[in-house]
């Protein structure tokens, strides 16, 4: 009977009741039903016997080979057991052959996410099982017919800070980590409609706020949120669910006096934590406490790059308080300080001033969001959402700025990832696909967070927005074609 070996470089994504095999390099895609997926993942040695038609299809499209060129094991093996570096290393399992590694230590300075192909996933699986390099090589040879790429993957893991250095294993100078496959987030999210574990959670820890901004999407401004003990229970669920990035928001989160305690709990358990603030309460003393707690990022909300435009939306004396908040965050060494800008018809023409404004602040990051006409204030705001034409105009400007201002990281979040890789929790522990939706899909004090997340999988469309933007034609078209 013919023996088949898998080819490396395959993205093995969950696809409802089966899996989808994707080779991005050749654009080949093969969808396997539940029974076929079981053969691929667990019984490849029986492939020829169980499904000859499937074996021919996989072979013709480059997913498997019957013989492996240079089929041999590495000459130097080792009984060394690679060690995961520290608590800041997390991994999510999308499928048995699709591991996503996350390093919250590297969020600012390096790419913190590594999306592994089927070969790399088998390497990582061996590492977390505590196997020696010898035993990992045996698994690779049984599955792929060769273990020669293991050094490339080990070097990639070391450079990414995912495992401890391994000295005297080989001459690392002749090993190229570029021989190890990994995928970018776009390749993954274009092939997976709903991740097994969300990467990001926006935690609306309170709705109480000291401002009354004209574009606010909240339905009320009075809820201070859960008592500290209950809030720490929410933090625990975020930790055990392996959510990688938590953004604490409000209302105004700094109206609570326990934020530092919550940040510290999350950070001590490897979660990357950011805060979105209106900047009015970000004193130097408060900022120092947040830095000591391990806060990774502060987003300060601006709605214009002049006092007049900003304060027309946010209120008197708010502009210079925001400027001071940025200075405090930088002085207290918060690792990343960013401007958050909600774009609407009254401030969209400010976009041309953005690079110079960021330079003036000494900030290199800015995140743009499209104003949504919803909420107690936003539903009756004296301005409108921007048009697809204006979205395109801003995108073209950002492309130009990447060349003219390579040190700036300006991100326009015009594509919806709600329900795919991100979710929201509100001040009472209710879970939402999207921050702008009012219908919850459950409460984490009644049902564990990950169980709630898994329950909504079949309701997420394969393409297009899944949240509020799906209900608004202009926003839907923006996400699909803008």
What is the topology?
Blueprint: E1 5-6, E2 11-15, E3 18-23, E4 28-32, H1 34-42, H2 47-50, H3 52-60, E5 64-65, E6 89-95, E7 98-103, E8 113-116, H4 118-128, H5 133-144, H6 150-159, E9 182-183, H7 185-189, E10 200-204, H8 228-240, E11 245-249, H9 259-268, E12 272-277, H10 284-293, E13 297-302, H11 307-314, H12 318-331, E14 336-343, H13 354-361, E15 365-370, H14 388-404, E16 409-412, E17 422-425, E18 431-432, H15 449-455, H16 473-481
Helix pairs in contact: 4-5, 8-9, 9-10
Report on the structure:
It is a single chain. With 482 residues, the protein is an alpha/beta fold. 32% of the residues lie in helices and 18% in strands. The protein is built from 16 helices and 18 strands. The strands form 4 sheets. A 9-stranded mixed beta sheet has the order 16-15-14-13-12-11-10-17-18. It has a 4-stranded antiparallel beta sheet with strand order 6-7-8-9. Helix 9 (259-268) packs parallel to helix 10. The radius of gyration is 24 Å and the shape is globular.
Write a concise synopsis of the structure shown.
This protein has about 475 residues and is an alpha/beta fold. It is built from 16 helices and 18 strands.
The end-to-end span amounts to 52 Å
Radius of gyration: 24 Å
The chain-level structural class is: alpha/beta
Percent of residues in beta strands: 15-25%
Overall average pLDDT: 92
Strand elements, count: 18
Note the main sheet: 9 strands, mixed
Low-confidence region ranges: none
The global form is globular
Q: Identify the strand order in the major beta sheet.
A: 16-15-14-13-12-11-10-17-18
Estimate the helix proportion, in percent: 25-40%
Number of helices: 16
């Amino acid at each position: 009977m013919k023996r088949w070996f898998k080819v490396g470089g395959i993205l093995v994504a969950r696809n409802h009741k089966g899996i989808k095999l994707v080779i991005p390099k050749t654009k080949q895609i093969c969808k396997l039903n539940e029974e076929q997926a079981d053969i691929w993942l667990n019984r490849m040695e029986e492939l020829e016997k169980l499904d000859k038609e499937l074996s021919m299809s996989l072979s013709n499209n480059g997913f498997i080979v019957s013989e492996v060129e240079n089929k041999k094991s590495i000459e130097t093996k080792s009984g060394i057991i690679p060690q995961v570096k520290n608590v800041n290393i997390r991994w999510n399992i999308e499928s048995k052959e699709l591991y996503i590694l996350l390093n919250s230590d590297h969020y600012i300075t390096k790419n913190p996410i590594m999306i592994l192909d089927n070969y790399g996933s088998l390497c990582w699986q061996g590492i977390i099982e505590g196997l020696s390099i010898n035993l990992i090589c045996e698994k690779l040879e049984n599955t792929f017919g060769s273990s020669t790429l293991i050094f490339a993957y080990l070097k990639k893991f070391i450079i990414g800070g995912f495992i401890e250095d391994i000295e005297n294993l080989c001459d690392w100078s002749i090993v190229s980590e570029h021989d190890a496959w990994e995928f970018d987030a776009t390749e993954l999210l274009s092939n997976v409609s709903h991740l097994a574990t969300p990467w990001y959670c926006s935690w609306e820890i309170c709705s109480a706020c000291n401002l009354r901004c004209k574009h606010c999407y909240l339905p009320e401004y009075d809820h201070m949120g859960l008592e500290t003990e209950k809030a720490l229970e929410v933090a625990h669920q975020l930790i055990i669910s392996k959510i990688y990035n938590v953004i604490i928001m409000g209302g105004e989160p700094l109206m609570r006096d326990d934020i530092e305690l919550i940040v510290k709990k999350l950070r001590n358990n490897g979660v990357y934590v950011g805060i979105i603030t209106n900047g009015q309460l970000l004193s130097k003393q408060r900022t120092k406490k947040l830095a000591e707690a391990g806060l990774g990022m502060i987003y300060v909300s601006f709605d214009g790059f002049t006092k007049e435009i900003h304060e027309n939306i946010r209120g008197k004396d708010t502009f210079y308080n925001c400027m001071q908040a940025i200075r405090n965050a930088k002085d207290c060494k918060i690792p990343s300080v960013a401007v958050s800008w909600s774009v609407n018809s009254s401030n969209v023409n400010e976009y041309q001033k953005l690079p110079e404004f960021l330079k003036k602040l000494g900030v290199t990051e800015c995140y743009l969001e499209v104003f949504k006409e919803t909420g107690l204030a936003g539903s009756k705001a004296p301005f409108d959402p921007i048009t697809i034409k204006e979205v395109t105009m801003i995108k073209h400007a950002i492309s130009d700025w990447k060349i003219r201002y390579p040190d700036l990281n300006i991100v326009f979040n015009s594509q919806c990832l709600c329900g795919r890789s991100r979710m929201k929790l509100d001040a009472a522990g209710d879970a939402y696909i999207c921050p702008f939706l009012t219908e919850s899909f459950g409460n984490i004090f009644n049902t564990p967070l990950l169980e709630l997340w898994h329950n909504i999988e079949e309701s997420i469309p394969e393409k297009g927005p899944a949240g509020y933007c799906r209900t608004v034609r202009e926003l839907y078209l923006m996400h699909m074609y803008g």
